[in-house]
Amino acid sequence: MSTATAVPSDTQDQAVAGAFRGYLDRVRGGDVGSLPAVLGFVALVIFFSAMRPDSFASTRNAANLLNQAAPVIFIAMGLIFVLLLGEIDLAAGYTSGVGAAVLVVLLTEHGVAWPLAVLACVATGLVIGTVMGALVARLQIPSFVVTLAWFLGLQGVLLLVVGEGGTISLSDETILSILNKNLSPALGWVLSLLVVGGYAAGAFLGSARRRRAGLPVVSPAVIGLKVAGLAAIMVAVTLVFNAERAVNPAIRSLRGIPLIVPVTLVFLLVLTFLLGRTGFGRHVYAVGGNPEAARRAGINVPMVKIACFAIGSMMAAFAGILFASYSNGVSPTTGGSSTLLYAVGAAVIGGTSLFGGKGRVIDAILGGLVVAVIQNGLPLITQKSGIQFIVTGAVLLLAASVDALSRRRAASTGQ
Amino acid sequence: MTEDPAPVLRLRGINKSFGAVHVLKDVGLDAWAGKVTALVGDNGAGKSTFVKGIAGIYGFDSGEYLFEGRPVSVSHPKQAAELGIEVVYQDLALCDNLDVVQNMFLGREIRSGLTLDENSMERRAEETLRGLSVRTLKSVRQKVSSLSGGQRQTVAIAKAVLWNSKVVILDEPTAALGVAQTEQVLSLVRRLADNGLAVVLISHNMNDVLQVADSVCALYLGRTAAQVDAGSTSTTQIVELITSGRSGDLGLPPTLAQEAVA
């Protein structure tokens, strides 16, 4: 609550301690946020690094892990919007498959320029999402049923377009580079500087604006600590990825932050802005929290729902581009099997509630990294894919239990 | 009956039927600025139907709806809100996952360009709460899920008065509250009127009514039994108006009161 600019250092210490105590209280009260995901990520990385120090804990694998995680993270970022409503989109996996098919067919078989192909791919997602959203919001069919039908239908579409057992390969350099190229080490440092500088500027300017408006502000010491923490993470990440990771550097050097990192950061920024700073975002949370209250407040609830499904499917279609980039093409199983479950798992592990009204876009990234570490690390320990499914299922169940328990705790402590 | 300044809200001869059921028969109500008008009546007397009509959830079949002396037509909640009539329903319609400021401005957010103007909203919410002398809230950035029943009621009422409204209708605001919280909410109701609003308080609870109401309008089986001055009427008389539609020479003529039962 300190509003003065020059606060003596002992009050600054108190402010930091107070902020920390407030955070602990929130966690104890059931508002755990992304804490389980962060702890889980750290624990898993330590575990796999100890088990497989040379294969898992290599910078090469770290870069591969990010590229592996990207499609699921993008689907999950879109799913957050649907989950915030308290709805589900089971078709998101195959939406990405169909998006990939549209992209690859246009690029490979019709020679369309890549920007147009990307646009067509995202437009496909828009159409799929709008129709699903309209069925849920206007006809009030449960989203589970609507998207289950689309899950089956889109799987069929993908099979017809790609052909049974076939694959269509992709040779477009631009699309392939998204998950195969890296920033130059210098650009990596520029990116880190932008991230830390941008965060610091946003936090301090926002705080200054609140002070001018005469509102209580967070102590500068607390903001400073957060900025320092982010800076430490960014420096560590940049150092790791800027190290040489080629098997034979003399032939072809392999260094730098993967290109997918800045791409993901841009989406994170735009979608977080949409949810946190705009009227639309506020209405999404309201509809997820209490649809009746939202309706009485004059919010067009069906439109909000349709928009969320549309955003979810567009993000899934974009994830299809990443699938195509990662596997150099599209096959009838692109976006299939457990893709959707991994994406839902990522969102829930990250701290987004399946009950609606609670979640952030960054949850998808944190949870997606946890899922990717399991997917990446387990095969290095055991060849049995059965065990991998069981472990991933167990982690998802654990995350859903944390969600449900924190809700109960929140209800009983009134947080 | 008080005949001092003209009422902000005056309804006369209101009728409303749902199919064959004639729910409101020639009902009337006056509400004055700066006064608390209690709307009382037994279950099924038509209180809710009456209030929903005033709020524009549905239109009345016939009757006069006068706002500040002008006849108005209200058939949609937006129209009522534009006139400055706000209703706080019993279920409060708050989003648990949003904070106090976000709830107060829900659907009517202040924007600057693309973004929400959080600072202006927070300041106005603070001002409104301060204007109502609300001191029970720790922070306006608390989530509603962390508030007690009385605090939630306070937020819902503050939300209703935020928009320079002239008439605030409160549907059973103390029904789910404990003794201390009931006191808090009732004193808030009193302050609303003292700030110059016309308050209509729907209540079952005679204690609440006697404590804060200036005027009492009793409904009896879909008719207005009488609207009386709270100061010059005894509890017994009000209870009789509620239970039998008449009390001495107050209320419905004996024939009508009998007919209503039949």
Question: How would you sum up this structure, described in words?
Answer:
The complex is a heterodimer of chains A (415) and B (262). Chain A has 415 residues and is mostly helical. Chain A has 2 domains: 38-46 and 64-181 and 260-402, ABC transporter involved in vitamin B12 uptake, BtuC (Orthogonal Bundle); 182-257. Helix content of chain A is 73%, strand content 1%. Chain B has helices at 47-55, 77-83, 100-104, 118-131, 149-161, 179-194, 206-212, 235-244, 254-261, and strands at residues 9-18, 21-31, 36-41, 62-67, 70-71, 85-88, 111-112, 115-116, 167-171, 198-202, 215-220, 223-229, 246-247, 250-251. In chain B, the strands form 4 sheets. Chain B has a 6-stranded mixed beta sheet with strand order 6-9-10-3-11-12, sandwiched between helices. A 4-stranded antiparallel beta sheet of chain B has the order 2-1-4-5, with helices on one face. In chain B, helix 5 runs parallel beside helix 6 (179-194). Chain B is globular and about 60 Å long. The model of chain B has no long low-confidence stretch (mean pLDDT 86). Chain A binds chain B through residues 209-210, 213-216, 277-279, 282-283, 285-286, 288-290, 292-294, 296-299, 357-358, 410-411, 414-415, and chain B through 77-78, 89, 91, 93-98, 102, 106-109, 111, 114-116, 119-120, 122-123, 126, 139, 143, 145-148.
